[in-house]
Automatic annotation (TrEMBL):
PANTHER family referenced in this protein's UniProt entry, alphabetically: ADENYLATE CYCLASE-ASSOCIATED CAP C-TERMINAL DOMAIN-CONTAINING PROTEIN, UPF0225 PROTEIN SCO1677
Phylogenetic lineage: Bacteria, Bacillati, Bacillota, Clostridia, Eubacteriales
Region entry Disordered, spans: 129-164
Name of the protein this chain belongs to: SEC-C domain-containing protein
InterPro entries the record matches: SEC_C_motif (IPR004027)
Biased composition (Basic residues): 154-164
Length: 164
């Protein structure tokens, strides 16, 4: 069984057994992982060596990799990842920050380790950009007597606005 599949099975089982407590423990470990990542230059290494470096098992390390994968400059192929697979943690700092905002991971996007990487002003801009990207904006309502937007030249009520 591939590590990613093991992680998903493990996380589901633990959630059923421990509920929110499992995720609290995981998020505590994840916070330490991101603190270390933000303070060092990312390099390539194997999943096993990263797990050893961060003091976690392979399955939990795969969970970390799954969480950061969308923010990496070159995403890792997590579906086929094994203990000796070489992975890169080279992340796009702005994309990582936005993804943390999207995930509502306040404990991660408010880490003090962001300060040397992104100014507070830039972090505010990225936060706003991310929040606005999910806002649905409705276009102006078409009145019955307005010209039809299809370009026919007829009034909306006599064209596309008519009950068919």
């Amino acid at each position: 069984m591939a590590l990613l599949e093991q992680w998903r099975t493990y996380a589901q089982e633990q959630q059923e057994k421990k509920g929110a407590k499992f995720w609290q423990e995981y998020f505590k470990q994840e916070t330490e992982f991101y603190k270390a990542i933000l303070q060092s230059k990312p390099r390539k290494s194997t999943v096993q060596s990263y797990a050893k470096k961060f003091g976690v098992d392979l399955v939990t390390m795969t969970g970390f990799l799954d969480g950061i994968n969308d923010s990496l400059k070159t995403p890792n192929d997590l579906e086929s990842i094994e203990a000796d697979s070489e992975v890169s943690l080279a992340y796009d700092k702005e994309l990582l920050y936005k993804n943390m905002v999207e995930a509502k991971a306040e404990w991660l996007y408010n880490l003090p380790e962001w300060e040397p990487l992104l100014t507070q002003e830039r972090r505010r801009e990225l936060y706003r950009e991310q929040k606005q990207s999910k806002t649905v904006v409705k276009g102006p309502k078409i009145g019955r007597n307005d010209p039809c937007p299809c370009g026919s030249g007829k009034k909306y009520k006599k064209c596309c606005g008519r009950d068919q």
